[in-house]
């Protein structure tokens, strides 16, 4: 029995849902619009200002998809209502980030700059660090999966290394540091 799948998804006052006959759901809110095709073993209904996901049978496939699609639809509702944000910080001397012509321009210690063009539906902004502050990159959008994927791709351009901690990391991420050749005790940053 899926405990997650049985919970109703509350729609706020500013979110509207449209369920098509081919089991497709479209959500509209102040931050945008998202659509998703729901599995054929499930049914989505709108009841009393909430969405309810039910399964037609008790087969293994239907049970496996019940909680998944309820969570995906819940993330869609939150995305169109409030949006999702991931913040990254860049650590390293001479490492810079700024926006040029709609592309993220990164200088990460390579012999060449890196240009990252965000996909449609994703807003990327860069904030240059002041004296003593690290540059920050903010990824925003309505699709939770796409925001996380774009942030991971940016982080992948120069992941934090364990000796000096230089690289791109999520804000608040702990990178375990290793001791160097001198045998200085390792720290967590």
What does it look like?
The protein is α+β, with helices and mostly antiparallel strands and 189 residues long. The protein folds into 2 domains: 9-81, Ribosomal protein L6 (Outer Surface Protein A, domain 3); 84-170, Ribosomal protein L6 (Outer Surface Protein A, domain 3, Alpha-Beta Complex), CATH 3.90.930.12. 19% of the residues lie in helices and 35% in strands. It is built from 2 helices and 13 strands. It has helices spanning 60-81, 144-156, and strands at 9-10, 16-19, 24-29, 32-37, 42-47, 50-55, 84-91, 96-100, 103-107, 114-116, 122-127, 136-141, 167-170. The strands form 4 sheets. The chain has a 4-stranded antiparallel beta sheet, with helices on one face. The chain is elongated and about 65 Å long. The chain starts with 8 loop residues before the first strand and ends in a 19-residue tail after the last strand. The mean pLDDT is 89.
């Amino acid at each position: 029995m899926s405990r997650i799948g049985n919970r109703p998804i509350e729609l706020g006052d500013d979110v509207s849902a449209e369920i098509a006959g081919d089991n497709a759901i479209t959500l509209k809110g102040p931050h945008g619009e998202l659509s998703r095709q729901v599995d054929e073993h499930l049914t989505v209904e709108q009841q009393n200002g909430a969405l309810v996901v039910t399964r037609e049978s008790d087969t293994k496939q239907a049970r496996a998809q019940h909680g998944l699609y309820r969570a995906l639809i819940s993330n869609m509702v939150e995305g169109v209502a409030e949006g999702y944000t991931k913040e990254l910080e860049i650590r390293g001397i001479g490492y810079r980030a700024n926006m040029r012509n709609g592309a993220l321009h990164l200088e990460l210690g390579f012999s060449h700059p890196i240009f990252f063009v965000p996909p449609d539906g994703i807003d990327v902004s860069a904030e240059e660090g002041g004296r003593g502050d690290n540059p920050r990159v903010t990824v925003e959008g309505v699709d939770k999966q796409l925001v996380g994927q774009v942030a991971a791709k940016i982080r992948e351009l120069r992941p934090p290394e364990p000796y000096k901690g230089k690289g791109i990391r999520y804000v608040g991420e702990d990178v375990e540091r290793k001791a160097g050749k001198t045998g200085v005790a390792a720290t967590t940053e």
